[in-house]
Each structure stands twice: as C-alpha cells, then as structure tokens.
Write a structure and sequence with these properties.
With 443 residues, the chain is an all-alpha fold. It has a single domain, classed as Up-down Bundle (Growth Hormone, Chain: A). The chain is globular, with a radius of gyration of 21 Å. It is a multi-pass membrane protein. GO terms for molecular function: transmembrane transporter activity. It is found in: Cell inner membrane. This is MFS transporter. Keywords: Cell inner membrane, Cell membrane, Membrane, Transmembrane, Transmembrane helix, Transport.
Amino acid sequence: MPVTPKAVLDKSSIRRVVISSWIGNTIEYYDFLLYGLASALVFSKVFFPNVSPLAAMLASFATFGVGFIARPLGGVFFGHMGDTLGRKITLLITLGGMGVATFLIGCLPSYNSIGIWAPILLVVLRFIQGFLVGGEWGGAMLMVVESAPANRRGLLGSIPQTGGFSGQLLATGVFALVTQLPEDQLLSWGWRIPFMLSVVLVLVGMYMRRRLDETPVFQEVQKQHKTKPNKVEKEESPVVTVVRDQWRSILLIMVLRFAESVPFFMTTVFAVSYATTQLGVDKQTMLNVVMATCVLAFPMHALFGALSDKVGRRPVYIFGALCAAAMAFPFFWLLESGSFVLMVLGYILLINIAHNSINAVQPSFFTELFGPKVRYSGASIGAQLGAIVAGGFTPFIAKGLSAIDHNDWTLVACYVVIAALVAAYAAWRAPETSKRDMTKDTL
C-alpha cells in the first residue's frame, strides 16, 4: 500500500530531518576525516617512528584503510537492525559509538610510551570506527530520502551529503590551529585535541536525533507487518534477501563509488601528504586549500541535487564521472605550481565540479535502487563495500604508485582516470530511479 497523505511529513518535520541528518553526517565525517589528516601529517611519527619514512607513511595510510575493511561488516549488522528495528535507534547507536571510539584515539599513548601496543590499539579503534560508520551513512540518507517529497529527493538528499565537507572543514580547521604549535608539542599532545573535541559534537548530534520520528515509509512497513495475516514462519533476514535478489544493485553501487571515492581521498589525504613532503608546500597552505574547497561544496551539492530532480540521476552521475577523468592530470599540474590560487582551482575542478556532482546524487540514487524492506541493508552494504575497493586504500595505493615512479604523480593520475571511466560506464548501464515510488518493492 502506498503511504497515505496523512503519513507524509510537513515542511517543519522534513526540515528537522534534513538538519539532524546533516549534523550527524558532519560529526561522522569529522571523526573519520580527522583520522585521515592525522595519518598524513602526524601518525607516521607518533605510532611508527622506528621505520623508514616511506614505510612509516605506508603503515599510517594502511591504518586509515583498516576502517574501510570494517565498514561492510557494519553495513550488514546495522543494515539488518535498521530494516527490522528502525532507522532512528540504529542511527543513535552508530553516532554515539563513533564518538567514543574517536575520543579514545585521542587518549592513546605513543609508540615511545608503550611500544607495539600503541599501533595495535590504534588499528583496533580504527576498526571500530569503520564498523560504526558502515551503518551510519545509509541510515542518515534514508531518513531524508524516505521523508522527502518525490520531486525533491535529489535536492534534499544532497544536503546531508555535505556533512562530509562540513566535517572536513571542522577537522581541517581544528588541525590547522594545532599545527601552529611547535612540532614537539604537536606530536606529544596537540594532535589529541581535535579527537577529544568530538565529544561536544556527538552530544549535539545525539540531542537532535532523539527528537526525530521514524520515516513515513518505515512506519508504513511496520503497519503492514502488524496487520499481515497468518504470520507463522519466521521472516527472512533483509540482508539475506537483498544479497540474493539484488546483488546486481549492490555490485552497481560498488562500481559507481569509484568516481567519487578515489578522487576524494586522493585529494584530501594523499595529495596533502604529497604536496607537503615532495613539493615543499607549507602544511598550513594545503590545509587552507582544502578548507576553501569545503566551503564551495555546499552550493555545488544543492545545484547538482536539484538538477538530478529535473533531468534524472544517471545524467548527472555520468557528467561527474567524466569530469573526474578529465580533471585528474590538470589537478596535479596545478598542484605542482605551488600557487595557492592555482591549487584551489585544481581542487575546484576535481572536487567541487566532478566529485560534488556525483556525491550529491548518491543518497537518492543508491537508496532508490531498493525496496523499503531491504533499503537500509542494500544501500549500506553496497556503499560500504564500495568504500573498501574504491576509497579506503586510495592513499596507500597512491603512495605506492608514486614510489614506483620515483615519487612522480603520473601513475596516480592514471589511477583516477581509470576509476572514473569505469564508474561512468556503470552509470550509463544503470536504471534511472528518480521516478520511483519509495513504498513499492520494485522499480
């Protein structure tokens, strides 16, 4: 049965859902991307001091990737919870747990204090972070897309997606402040401050999320379940159902993520490290470049999200993927200039135009591929599996490719081009989902 008009949220309720999802996503990515910055600038010296600089940097980036290995596991676990118990309770658990894990990272002793246990504990906490993130993204997006009017799902779904950039903005801004400290103070206690501050943000997010109701779509699913006659047999797990019946959609999402995740983590993690260590660019300058990109991401997401409501998800996604392929080499040419203005231009081309057009469409595009009974599981599993193969090890792969080529970036740019073209082909073959009835099990 379709959702009745009375079940549709009013404007104030939709606004509250969008804002709370944006805040939650901001906190999630603040925690997660803060780790990426620390991996590029600090962790190699704090947790891996007794190896060569290259090995230390690779080890630091590898711990960054560990969080992505855990994400599909979190997607399975919290996807099942979200499809059976509800979106709201699941999101409260993921956000609260994420905050605890991030705070504990800030409390970790260094390698010089407890030896090998320092990097071991770092990897464990990073794994827990990734596990919780695996259930966070899908639920936050569902809260908005399932609550939005059909003709505004692209626009409203794109707004919480900017949480990645507001989180990056906060993480970069706080890190920019602590990097002003003398290096010995930065490495001893300064880097810990941004991680510990996450507690304040988490408390705000928990307060906002506790005030939300379940989405109209999930409420209707619960209503149908309660009135369903002859409920004798135990229902199959949503995870089992979606993997068996819609594995093609899960695989599609994994491939689509290449055009978004590879450029993003290449520019925000690898490029920051490459510019500061190989090109001699000041750390503060690189942090300012990233911050400028984050500010521009807000209007760009709204633009591309609204456009996808007009022309469809596929055309916008294909446009973004082709732009990412075209901008990979110009990005590094502009980065090599060392000019703040030209480096910002490079980030605008690859991130604010190419990446943002893709990122804005993902919430609506990915969730619209699935029916309401398996939507949390399907979107989460697909997105988080894609996060492993497309994003988690991008800094590690990029560092390895540049080392093979004598610290040159050419192979890294080729990697971005290939990833983007593969995703563009997948988007071309994908179904158009913008007209889907979110209460139906099929397109």
